[in-house]
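If I may wish for something, please walk me through the protein I am sending here so I can picture the backbone:
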Amino acid sequence: MKITNFTAKDKRYFIAAAFVLLVISCFLHFWKIGEIPNGFYADEASVGYNAWCIAETGADEYGTKYPVLFKAFGNYHEPVMIYLLAPLIKIFGPEKWVVRLPSAIFLILASIAFYFLAMEYCSNRWICLCSAFVFSVTPWLFPISRVGIGGYSAMLLGMVAGWYLLIRAFRKHSLTLAAISGVCWAFAMYAHNIGRPMTAAILVCFVVAMNVFLIRRWKVFASFIAGYLISLIPMILYVLGNPESMTSRFSLLKVWGGTSGVSETISRIFERYLEYFSPRFLLISGDLNLRHHTGAAGEIFLSMTPFILTGIVYAIIKFKKNPYLRFALFGLLLYPLAAVLTIDHMHSMRCMNGIIFWSVFVVIGAGALWHWRSRQLARMAFYLLPFLFLIELGCYMHNYFGDYVKRSRLDFAAPLIEAFEYSFQELQPDEILYVSFSVVPQKINKEFKPFWYVDLLFFGKIHPATYLREGLPRNRIAAYDMRAYRKGILIRSNVVSLKGEDGNNYLFMNSEPVPAGAKLLKEIPIVAGESAVIQIYGMKKE
């Protein structure tokens, strides 16, 4: 049902419904984005600070001018989020909500793009509109859209828009749309490192699915390849000069690390592949990392399942005749490729591209059921499943903005981040922030590396030019060595974690002395209801 065939009244209803759903989606993504989830993960601070560096100096934190990839923590950040953030941080300063804002915006845009992609698989605009809204709030995507950990949602926008434009280019014989599609797929590769292998794999699926049809449309395909490869020239040149930027992270995560041989590696890959199609991952608990997922639901809503199953059956029936359905099937089968080559189990971020394929099959299945709506079972699905979705959505959002906020505090280092925020607010211009190693869970050096230095830079609002010139300024931030050189504030923990003879970690009272005359300003519980706390003291010069 095309919108051009709507009556004027139908058009008004459709536009009003689209506006309402967009407002609801925006509210859910933007409300308290700087506060929920609590805390601020190190990757968020790193992305934010490097964006500030670019805005102020045109270089990253290492002094490299306008890099294609940004070195951080022995790994590399992708450029899309950092370069987009640079003008925002220039205007608003280094704030948590600013760093997280682009992720939410990109997912909203990806959801809008998904509506147009859905229209290529289903002619009912109401189904496509509802599917786009479901896409925007699915548990697979919603948590990561509210944090600034990486360019996942930007990657999804590139993939969804690229898929849509590629289909339109082939159907309309449009060289222009094909070239723009190539740019979109390249954008996905710049947005996140998972986009690099998965974009290549998905495009191989497209070639296999289209087969002889590519020969008939060879000019369109050549235009697509040209747009794709030309857009990738900066990355190709950078990687040739910095090959470790492609391999440093994967070398630590490869699935064959520590295996006894080929058979064990194959067994691991097969085991992980099946996990990504299991009910446990998709429908029950999902990724157990609370930075990626709430852990209180599957990666997709239960109400999506009947539509997905119907869509898969429909695509199999039409497999020989419809290359676009073949492409969707191939892409679904291959979606966990990047994830299964890493050691982790059920890592939702490394297979995030899969939600596009699962959602497309929701659209295909819903369209098929609508076509079969004269049958009682299909009618029941359209009456019952929307109500089930609304119940699931309400429960999910209640959990996300409620219990999840408390459960995820340690995963986002909330106690320490709150200590940094409070201390820098209270710290006077001529004072020093002393940080005890007792508050840091990892082993670090006096520069607070490899991770925590960037939180101190971000929340201490240390100007990038200062950091590039002299590193972490000693007249502002110092490791606590049980002395106070100048008046300031001390952050310490009342407990320390030590490894016992059995190899386990145990908590002991911190025997580190507090200088005489220090005044306790605040205590922040590390875990609610337990005695371990982060203490903040006001200190005088000894």
